[in-house]
Design goal:
Chain A has 385 residues and is α+β, with helices and mostly antiparallel strands. Chain A has 14 helices and 13 strands. With 232 residues, chain B is of the alpha/beta class. Chain B has six helices and ten strands. Classes of the chains: A alpha+beta (385), B alpha/beta (232), C alpha+beta (395).
Chain lengths: 385, 232, 395
């Protein structure tokens, strides 16, 4: 476009003002990128759940145990494909501060219900055979510098050993990865049998069941059947899809979504006001020149477009820099936060949203000055100056 | 083929309404400007000079009456049509030059050419020609802030003629210049008129400017008067 | 010196009076400062409220026993035998009934949260009259105490605020068991108000605990008894427990929302940078808008300094106004706002946002820093406006 040179020159007239305005937009999109990625990571647990996987927990609280006998009972229910179970171990590595998310599971059935976990075959079969073996996720292995073959102690802040103390020894038989980028690999798996036989409280109880249905359309029906099977017993169940369960858990933390939305909205709105004002002021200062351009024969609509292009360029300039900055921050934070937030990454969904908002910002801040430039009357403009 | 009268104004009236009051600038104004004229319009402030200039430039429309340019009516054109018409036919020269402060001389002169379909190299060539004509080839890359008033006005003239319009409209072109520089500018305008056949209308205060024009008219309170009548 | 003052005062007055000319840009600066302050205060109030709720629950003279390695009461356990052993520890106060020791149970039940209309976990604590007496500030605000050995319970005032279905006289069902709400209690607004209380023995029965408990509280003869008790625990092989002052336990728990305060500082600092950019823009525009006036004053004889002060004062005033607006907004919208979030044992902790003078000071300071920086550089420029500008015609 021939007008591009003129637009560029108009943008760069006052270097300090350009810098400050770009910086303000940069800040807005830095916040947007970082916080939306955070939100995405919090929701990823929800999104990543398979749609035909159900979770069965104790009705009163997922912290209450269920009888082991339930495993076979659920297996027998129509529509159920595979069943596995897990216990929350409450693990920590060396110090209580160094928490390790750990589950005591039945290895074969667990890997069947969670096909997105990928392990090298020899590692997997070694773990299957070794009762004191532990399978660690890639992320947590990196965080703690663990290698296959290491012997590590894992302590529990809930359970103690029959023989005293709260620490168990394990050999790392393998490392598992996810078959997609966002899959959580920041936890570890140990054998239920070994755990159950050595922990001091005794009894055969499990934390919860996870099962797959033959088809996602059967989910609701299967869930109903399971819950009615155990209704009015000593341990009533609550069955929901894995997605619903994860979402309910996050909900408990409070209205995180609202807080995040509120902060981002305020940041944007503030920037909008600041940048919008600057644009209006800049155009007002150019009244004379706009009148001259019209006198030379530039159509009003052409000038209108030029102003909008100018404001959009400004928005994209600051916006792309901001997203770039957010990307760097997220990259750095994701290593630090690997333990709590395993899927922290600035994804394409956040990027696309940001681009859309850059366009919106450019249009909103440019529309008022563009219209005033469109309507500018040459005669009044010159008689003013 | 250009008609004998480049401009014809017939029964032109221009009135402004401010609330309940109506101010009349012109009533029943008639004039013609011949092709190849260099006309100076003089008159005290408030005489309507500026309004007449605006009407001739298609920047303002008459309340009633007709304005014809080269046989074509311009008083009934839409705003976008007028913009095109101005781009094709008129070059403007202002009292305060009105150059874009952030563009250098060459880029300023190039502006009217952005309204055409010429290629980049064609535009460059025409800019060079225009600057050569006004004697500022060596200042092509200079910014307005680096030039004197006279030089800036010459750049403005180059801009006004770069797309070779038939008609130049000048609003107090020497109003801000010293005597010597003013004369240089007026000589240049005379050159454009005599050698390049451009029709020029110049609104001015400067009595000695009239010497460069082919003929002078006087405006007083919206009417053309003879020079002697002004002394009354 | 006094002419300097009167000059500055005159310039400041002129600047402020000329504000309406730059109304929108000035308002933008005020708005940006207000938003920064409000956001900072919101997060700080959240963290402070949570912390206060936790901290105020703990007493310095109550010894709190949990099984070693337990992160929270939920994970702990204590057999009857172990409770008896602890009753014999040194440094524990006694009254006519014997050692002032309260063994307690902590089980999880469900309630429907008003805000999300979804279920969330709340604690049901099993204790006896001794335990109730150990909560300082305990009062019954409605109804009566539960009768031991019955299925009656009392609910904390916080539960009533944030959850549905726990009103006085209501019958509640947890799993197979039915309970009746016979009273509402308050403990001065701390975390205990997010709990349901019932008779310990009844809970042992219903939840098949036999004669076991989970945590133990004991009133100490004085806070200095703590090391004696700790020593006793170490030397008794049958006890796998650790002791701390109840106040320390809750202080730790209170820190868990500390990340909110950190987050608040980080976010509002970043936004402050954005607001600063906007403020600088406003002030630079102000200076160029008034260039002619400044130069004219200098031509008359006013000093550089007065021009400098005039601009600084304008910037600080706008920022200060912004901080007041922001503080007011934070106070109106956030002070006392009730919220609940996940606490240590995966149960909900009800707390209120808490604003206090020291938080306001922090907010205002941040705004004033923005005002100072955004005023300084333009003020420097204002001081250097050359007199010649006064003689140039405005175009």
């Amino acid at each position: 476009m021939k007008d591009f040179y003129l637009i560029y020159k108009n943008l760069t007239r006052k270097k300090m003002r350009l810098f400050l305005t770009t910086f303000a937009i940069f800040i807005a999109f830095l916040i947007f990128g970082a916080i939306m990625s955070l939100r995405s990571a919090l929701n990823a647990g929800v999104e990543m759940s398979a749609d035909n996987r159900l979770v069965v927990v104790h009705k009163t609280s997922f912290t209450n145990p269920l009888p082991y006998a339930y495993v076979n009972k659920v297996k027998a229910i129509e529509g159920v494909k595979d069943v596995t179970h897990a216990n929350w171990f409450g693990g920590y590595y060396k110090e209580p501060r160094n928490q390790v998310v750990s589950f005591a599971v039945d290895p074969q059935s667990y890997m069947t219900v969670y096909p997105e976990l990928v392990v090298e075959p020899e590692q997997l079969s070694r773990w299957y055979k070794n009762q004191t073996g532990i399978l660690v996720g890639e992320r947590i292995a990196i965080a703690n510098n663990w290698k296959v073959g290491d012997r590590i102690p894992l302590s529990s802040n809930i359970f103690s050993q029959k023989t005293g103390g709260q620490t168990w020894e394990f050999e790392i038989d393998g490392i598992f990865k996810g078959n997609e980028e966002k899959i959580d690999t920041s936890y570890v798996l140990i054998h239920y049998k070994y755990f159950n036989e050595t922990q001091s409280w005794g009894g055969d109880s499990i934390g919860w069941l996870i099962l797959t249905t033959l088809d996602a359309s059967l989910n609701e029906q299967v869930a109903k059947v399971i819950d009615s099977e155990f209704a009015n017993s000593n341990n009533e169940t609550d069955t929901s899809t894995e997605q619903a369960f994860n979402k309910a858990f996050i909900d408990q933390i409070g209205n995180i979504g609202l807080i995040i939305f509120g902060v981002v909205f305020m940041a944007f709105f503030t920037i909008l006001i600041v940048v919008g004002n600057t644009m209006v002021l800049a155009i007002r200062e150019r009244t004379n020149e706009i009148a001259v351009l019209k006198t030379l024969g530039f159509a009003s609509s052409r000038i209108f477009k030029m102003v909008l292009v100018e404001s959009c360029l400004l928005a994209f300039l600051g916006g792309l820099l901001g997203i770039g900055g957010a990307f760097i921050i997220i990259k750095g934070a994701s290593e630090q936060m690997a333990r709590f937030l395993p899927n922290l990454v600035l994804g394409s969904d956040v990027l696309l949203q940001a681009l859309a908002y850059m366009l919106v910002l450019g249009l909103i801040t440019g529309i008022a000055p563009a219209i005033s430039a469109l309507r500018l009357n040459i005669v009044t403009a010159f008689s003013r100056g | 083929m250009t008609s004998e009268n480049l401009f014809e104004l017939n029964n032109v009236a221009k009135r402004f309404t401010k609330g309940k009051e109506t101010i009349s600038i012109f009533e029943d104004l008639n004039m013609h400007i011949k092709t190849g004229d260099f006309m100076a319009i003089m008159g005290p402030s408030g005489s309507g000079k500026t309004t007449l200039l605006n009407l001739l430039g298609g920047v303002d429309q008459p309340t009633t009456g007709e304005i014809t340019f080269d046989g074509q009516r311009i008083d009934n054109l839409s705003e976008s049509q007028l913009a095109k018409w101005r781009a094709n036919n008129i070059g403007f020269i202002f009292q305060f030059y009105n150059l874009m402060p952030m563009l250098n001389a060459a880029k300023n002169v190039e502006l009217p050419l952005l309204l055409t379909n010429l290629s980049s190299s064609q535009r460059k060539a025409q800019v060079e020609t225009a600057l050569k004509l006004v004697g500022l080839s060596d200042r092509a890359k200079h910014m307005p802030s680096e030039m004197s008033g006279g030089q800036q006005q010459r750049v403005a003239i180059a801009r006004a003629i770069v797309s070779d319009p038939k008609f130049l409209l000048c609003d107090e072109p020497t109003g801000d210049l010293d005597r010597q520089t003013a004369d240089e500018i007026l000589e240049m305008l005379q050159l454009l008129n005599k050698e390049f056949g451009k029709t020029i209308v110049m609104v001015t205060h400067d009595p000695s400017a009239a010497k460069f024009a082919t003929h002078t008219v006087h405006l007083n309170k919206g009417k053309f008067v003879k020079a002697e009548e002004l002394l009354l | 010196m006094s002419t300097l003052m009167s000059q500055s005062a005159a310039v400041i007055k002129m600047n402020i009076q000329s504000l309406p000319r730059r109304l929108w840009m000035s308002l933008a600066m005020v708005f940006a400062s207000a938003v920064v302050v409000a956001i900072l205060l919101a997060f700080l109030a959240m963290a402070k409220g949570f912390d206060a709720t936790m901290k105020s629950a703990g007493s310095e003279d109550i010894a709190f026993f949990m099984r070693t390695g337990s992160a929270a009461e939920l994970n702990s356990s204590a057999s009857r035998e172990q409770v008896n052993l602890i009753e014999n520890a040194p440094g524990i106060a006694r009254d006519e009934q014997g050692p002032m020791v309260s063994p307690e149970l902590y089980v999880i039940v469900d309630g429907v949260k008003k805000s999300t209309q979804n279920e969330a976990n709340i604690p049901l604590r099993g204790l006896d009259q001794r335990g109730v007496a150990m909560r300082k500030g305990f009062t019954l605000v409605a109804g009566r105490m539960f009768n031991p050995g019955t299925d009656e319970l009392i609910v904390g005032a916080g539960i009533l605020r944030e959850f549905d279905g726990f009103e006085l006289g209501q019958e509640i069902r947890f799993g197979k068991y039915k309970w009746k709400v016979v009273g509402v209690f308050s403990t001065g607004g701390n975390v205990f108000e997010s709990e349901l209380w019932a008779d310990a023995k009844v809970i042992q029965n219903l939840y098949n605990r036999g004669s076991s408990y989970q945590s133990i509280r004991a009133r100490m003869t004085s806070p200095d008894s703590l090391p004696l008790i700790a020593e006793y625990l170490k030397n008794e092989p049958r006890l796998t427990h650790e002791v701390q002052a109840e106040s320390s336990y809750f202080a730790e728990q209170g820190k868990s929302l500390g990340y909110m305060a950190m987050f608040g500082w980080v976010i509002s600092s970043i936004m402050a940078l954005g607001a600063l950019a906007g403020a600088l823009n406003t002030m630079y525009t102000s200076v160029s808008d008034r260039a002619m006036e400044i130069a004219t004053l200098r031509a008359i004889g006013f000093s550089h300094f007065s021009a400098f002060i005039g601009t600084m004062a304008e910037a600080m005033t706008l920022a200060a106004i912004g901080s007041i607006v922001g503080s007011l907004a934070a106070f109106i919208f956030f002070d006392g706002l009730s919220a609940s979030t996940l606490g240590g044992s995966f149960t909900q902790v009800v707390f209120s946002f808490q604003l206090s003078p020291d938080l306001f000071i922090k907010g205002i300071s941040m705004a004033l820093i923005i005002g100072f920086i955004s005023g300084f550089f333009p003020a420097w420029r204002a001081a250097r406006v050359p007199v010649i500008v006064a003689f140039q015609t405005a175009r």
